[in-house]
Amino acid sequence: MMTMLTITWTSISENDRRRIARWQKGMLALAILCEIFLAADWYAFAAVLPFVSESLKLNPAEAGLAQGIFALTYGIGMVCGLRSAGR
């Protein structure tokens, strides 16, 4: 017969609780900072989108798709960059 070890918030030491809470707050701060950079670049790209659309002869749907793709790839790049920086 197998027994499962159950760890709850109340069963860990006070020191571990403080360490976990500090790590969670740090990750939340990092996520907010990354979101600020992502939003800033997204809006900066939106500001030049009319010029890009004109140069590339994009219709509004294609321009919106380009902006969305930029935001997604930028966000993924930020996560990958943070991950590799932590090594």
Protein model, in words:
This protein has 87 residues and is mainly α. The chain is 79% helix and 0% strand. It has helices at residues 14-56, 60-85. Helix 1 (14-56) runs antiparallel to helix 2. The radius of gyration is 21 Å and the shape is elongated.
**Rounded radius of gyration (Å):** 21 Å
User: What is the overall pLDDT average?
Assistant: 82
E-strand count: 0
Multimerization status: single chain
Give the helices and strands as they follow along the chain: HH
* Helix/strand/pairing category: mainly alpha
From the N-terminal CA to the C-terminal CA, the straight-line distance is 40 Å
Hey, roughly how much beta strand do the residues contain?
Answer: under 5%
Short description:
This protein is mainly α.
Topology:
Elements: H1 14-56, H2 60-85
Relevant terms:
single chain; 87 residues; mainly alpha; 2 helices; 79% helix
